[in-house]
């Protein structure tokens, strides 16, 4: 029983440490703030909001629709993306976004298989 409790504690600590590695970036234009997506309650990721107008021209040219939510790992690599449709609203649900975060969190806790060369 002690081993089980220690294992559970280890997994929880690993998940908490891994949570620091994910960032959920919400980018929207100032003219479209009425369509901001509510990310309150999202767990295991830092949530940041930015206006498109405040971004570098190189980033602005890559974003074709607003709002957009991008899930980034600790290296800045995109791990998920949700875009607005023609109504300028994101149609994904908060549960879908949280599920993707949880999937990535579980990837970090799975033991890796040894490969034989």
If you had to describe this structure to a student in words, what would you say it looks like?
By secondary structure, the chain is α+β, with helices and mostly antiparallel strands. It has a single domain, classed as Glutaredoxin (3-Layer(aba) Sandwich). Helices cover 34% and strands 20% of the residues. It has three helices and four strands; from the N terminus they run αββαββα. Strand 3 and strand 4 form a beta hairpin. The longest helix is centred in the first third of the chain and has 18 residues, at 2-19. The N and C termini lie far apart (38 Å). The model has no long low-confidence stretch (mean pLDDT 85).
Number of domains: 1
CATH top level?
Answer: Alpha Beta
CATH architectural group = 3-Layer(aba) Sandwich
β-strand percent reads 15-25%
- Please report the total strand number as a whole number: 4
CATH superfamily: Glutaredoxin
H-E order: HEEHEEH
CATH topology: Glutaredoxin
- Overall pLDDT metric: 85
Assembly type of the shown chains?
single chain
Query: Approximately how much helix is present in the residues?
Result: 25-40%
**Radius of gyration from CA coordinates:** 17 Å
Distance between the termini: 38 Å
How are the strands of the biggest sheet laid out side by side?
2-1-3-4
| Poorly predicted spans | none
Number of helices: 3
Counting helices, strands and paired strands, the structural category is alpha+beta
**Shape field:** globular
- Biggest beta sheet summary: 4 strands, mixed
